[in-house]
From TrEMBL:
PANTHER family: PROTEIN PHOSPHATASE. It comes from Rhynchospora breviuscula. This is protein-serine/threonine phosphatase. It catalyses: O-phospho-L-threonyl-[protein] + H2O = L-threonyl-[protein] + phosphate; O-phospho-L-seryl-[protein] + H2O = L-seryl-[protein] + phosphate. Gene3D superfamilies: PPM-type phosphatase domain.
Amino acid sequence: MCMALLRLLKSCWLPSSGRHAGSDGAGRQDGLLWYKDTGQHVNGEFSMAVVQANNLLEDQCQVESGALSFLDAGPCGTFIGVYDGHGGPETACYINDHLFNNLKRFASEQNTMSAEVLRKAYQATEDGFFSVVTAEWPVKPQIAAVGSCCLVGVIAGGTLYVANVGDSRAVLGRLVKVTGEVLAVQISAEHNVGIEPVRKELQSMHPEDEQIVVLRHNVWRVKGLIQVCRSIGDVYLKKPEFNREPLYAKFRLRGTFKKPILSSEPAITVQPLQPHDQFLIFASDGLWEHLSNQEAVDIVQNGPRNGSARRLVKTAMQEAAKKREMRYSDLKKIDRGVRRHFHDDITVIVIFLDSNLISRASLNRGPAASVRGGGVNLSASTVASYSTSI
């Protein structure tokens, strides 16, 4: 079982077969920043960037373009995933390895894309990670306290599907023809108890527990532990049999619980894409901590498509530096781990929408693309060392 965990961890950082670090196909590395300035997907172009702040990168992401099922005549389009891990990288890596294939499996069964396909894919991914935790618990019990936000977008048949658990965010840039402005429209629903309606919803679901959300150091947290109330993983707050020794004391609740505290049920929106929809920004909360929706849309709209995700990451880092009254150039010199005191891991994917391609998407099955973003490559010995310390 230890070897299974080691393989899972290795998959987070080692380049996929057939792609080479530094090449245009795999993206490029600049210190703690990974980026792919431009690529082609079925419905247009895309740009990706990831900057690491944690000692081990906890953000993972992917763009998959082409077939969305295992059937020759099945749906095709573009899949976008942003997975913001917490407590460690294992859950985000697992999602990166399994969610898209789960989606393809259920899309094959229904021979279509739908909200139900997304919902089933999330549940299958959650169940799969539960199995990993169950297998690893006797030797690596802290994996029960690892989880991930999970933001997914699917463009198929001229329709946009967005599913989310956690506090990553999808924002649409929409052209207003009368004024020529491109306005930001938030597509995803977030699940952070710092948002009052989210907090009240969780309280209403657990009326017997006055401590279901706790304010500590001016931050609302579920049971005083975590800010998000929906996630993949975080088994210690979903199954009481994992909230006990030898899990670290800081994660163990004083009493048991009869029903899951956190949920993996995604909030799903489905809407037709319009000719005036220009682009989509999918990003972890590391970006939105420093930029508003409209600021992000303006940066994309006012610059060239090439490198748009990297510009968003750079602007967020510049804002982080300003908040600490330091220069951006000095912030870039700070190594991972220590960097987390200044900003979070940041993942950004910008998806440009070509209305001509979208309108004939059912006939257009290319170009195929499969890109996973992010990761300062770690040696096997480094990964092994980490896996024994969980």
